[in-house]
Amino acid sequence: MAADSSKLATVLRAHGLRVTAQRQLVLDAVRDLGHATAEQVHESICGRVRGVNITTVYRTLDLLESLGLVAHTHLSHGAPVYHLAGDRGHVHLVCHRCGTVDEVNSEVFDELRRSLEKQRGFLLDVGHVALFGICAKCEKASH
């Protein structure tokens, strides 16, 4: 889903809610950051606009998630990370060393999905999966 102002306005109005600058700022920050905690979203907004407090960011993220515009996932033991909602099936690749988060399509699980269905009758639903390892940049730096 696009994070443009017309999409936000359409969704908010369909639910009887007002379009506010804070809501648009939060959605824009999530789009721009890709994967970000509420605190990172807040920092991004404060870098552009003054007067938006962290409570507003948390409430807005909750609202945007309930409207299907953003989603959150837990990539580690820390705070949840928010990203634009859209294709449910993608895999987060999280580097243990630098914390970089990348995404790959859930098709990487196609063989496992078929195998589990055939062998166990289990239908795998890959929503948001986080796989942890070492990114190529960190691996290269260690040699």
Integer-rounded radius of gyration: 18 Å
Strand tally, please?
5
Distance between the termini: 40 Å
Overall geometry: flat
**Major sheet description:** 3 strands, mixed
The strand order across the widest sheet is 4-3-5
What structural class results from the helix and strand content? Answer: alpha+beta
| Count of alpha/pi helices | 6
The total tally of domains equals 2
| CATH topology heading of the largest domain | Arc Repressor Mutant, subunit A
Describe what you observe in this structure.
With 143 residues, this protein is an alpha+beta fold. It has two domains: 5-84, Arc Repressor Mutant, subunit A; 90-141, Dna Ligase, domain 1, CATH 3.30.1490.190. It is 43% helix and 17% strand. The protein contains six helices and five strands. It has helices at residues 5-14, 21-33, 38-46, 54-66, 110-120, 136-141, and strands at residues 70-73, 81-84, 90-95, 101-105, 128-133. The strands form two sheets. Strands 4-3-5 form a three-stranded mixed sheet, with no helix packed on it. A hairpin with a 7-residue loop joins strand 1 (70-73) and strand 2 (81-84). Helix 2 (21-33) crosses helix 3 and helix 2 packs across helix 4 (54-66). The longest helix has 13 residues, at 21-33. The protein is flat, with a radius of gyration of 18 Å. 15% of the residues are buried. The model has no long low-confidence stretch (mean pLDDT 88).
